[in-house]
Amino acid sequence: MLNAETYITSQKGIGGEIRTINEDFYVEEIPETPPSGEGPNTWIWIEKNGRTTLDVVLDIARELKINRKQMGFAGMKDKRAITRQWICISNKTPEELQGLEDKLHHVKIINIVPNQKKLRMGQLIGNKFRLMVRDVGDTEPAAQEATKILNELEKRGVANYYGFQRFGKDRPNTHLVGKALIKGGVKDAVDRYIGHPYDTEPRHIQEARRLYDQGELEESLESMPSGMRYEKMMLRTLIKEKNKRGELVENSYIRALRSLPKPLSRMFVHAYQSYLFNRAVSERSKLGIDQYVEGDILIDNEEHLIHEFSREEINQEIKNFQAHPSSPLYGSKVPLAGGKLGEMEQKILDEENLKLDDFEVPPMPKLGSHGIRRAMRFRIWDVAAEATEEGVLLSFSIPKGCYATSVLREVMKKDVY
Q1: Rounded to whole angstroms, how far apart are CA atoms 92 and 148?
Q2: What percentage of the chain carries pLDDT values higher than 90?
Q3: How many Cα atoms sit within 13 Å of 343 on the Cβ side?
Q4: Does residue 415 have an active-site annotation?
Q5: What structural domains and CATH numbers belong to the chain?
Q6: Residue tagged active-site, from 55, 78, 296, 358
C-alpha cells in the first residue's frame, strides 16, 4: 500500500502471490436495494473479466449510441479480476438491450431487470471477495495462520488504507497529478498524466509519452495504443487548441482535463488525499486501532462526528464497531485532531508544504475538495480461509469504499496490488 507502514496483526503471515490469473480475484457487489422489476430504468447485472468499470460503461454507451450520463453504477471494480456489479441504463427497456452482450469484450450480462430508480455512485453496502493466494508452501498450516489473522481482524478491524488501485500499479502517479492540481499547476497535472514515462511500462507506451514530453503532440497521439483512451482524449483537445490558438495556454490544459469523464478527473485530487490519508492512518495505527486516544475525532457509521461521549462508553462502542477513530482526508474545511494527534496530522501537511486552503484548487474549483474525516479502520465479516490444491482460498466481505488489499496485506504480510 502506498505510504502505509503499520500492521495491525502480529502474526508472521502466509506470504504467497495473488492475481496469478484474473479468476483468482473474484468480487461481487452487495447492493443496497436490488431492482424491483418495474420502472423506466433498466439495471443489468454484469460479470466482467480484465476490464475497468468505466471502460465497460463507455463501451455500452457507444454500442447503444447514448450519452454516458444516461448510465450509472454504484462503484468502480477491479480490472485484474472477475467482478460482478449492477449498471443502470436510463430510459431504455430490457428489449432494447437484446444482443448487447455479443458486442461487448469480456463482459457477460447475467440479468436484466427494470427498476423505478436510477443507480448512483455509493449506493451499495459493500463487496464480497473470494481470493486465491498461491505459492504459500504447505497450504494446511497457511490456512490456519490466515484464519487466526482474519479472526483477529474481524474482532479489531482492518486499517482503512487506500490500495494501489487508487494510484496505479505499474504507473503509480494518479496522486502526483492531484498534487500538481492542488499546487496550482494545471499544465503540470496534464503533463504528468500524459507524459513522464515509467520504466515499468511497455516500451511503446514509454515512447508515446516521451514524444509528448518533447512537444510532438500529433506523433504522440498516433503512437498511442487504444488502451490509452484517456490520454488520447486529452491529446486531441490539446491539438485542437494548438491549431486554433497557435499555442497552448492554461485554459487549453483546463479544457484537456474537462474532456475526461468526470469520475476520472475527480479521482486525481482524491488520489492525493488518499496518499496523505494512508500516512495519517499508518501513524495513528501505532497507538491502537480499536481504542480511543486523547484528541481523537470520532465518527459513527454514517461518518457523522461524535461530539459528546464518556471514555468508558466510547471504547465499548468502538469495540462494537458503532464508533471509530478517524483520520483526515485533507481538504479546505476538514478539522484536524486535538493535542498530539493534531500535531501529527499537521506535520504531514508541513512535510508536503501544504495548507488546507490549497485543496480549493482555484483553477478548477469543481475538482477541489473540502475534505472529510474518514474512519481509520473498517469492519470485516463472513471470513474464512480454506486450504486447496492451488493455495489458500480466502473469503470475506467488507464495506463500500474499502480495499480488499488492506486485508490481504495483513494476511500475507507484504505489499499487494
Answers
A1: 49
A2: 91
A3: 3
A4: no
A5: 33-122 (3.30.2350.20), 174-265 (1.10.1510.30), 268-378 (3.30.2350.20)
A6: 78
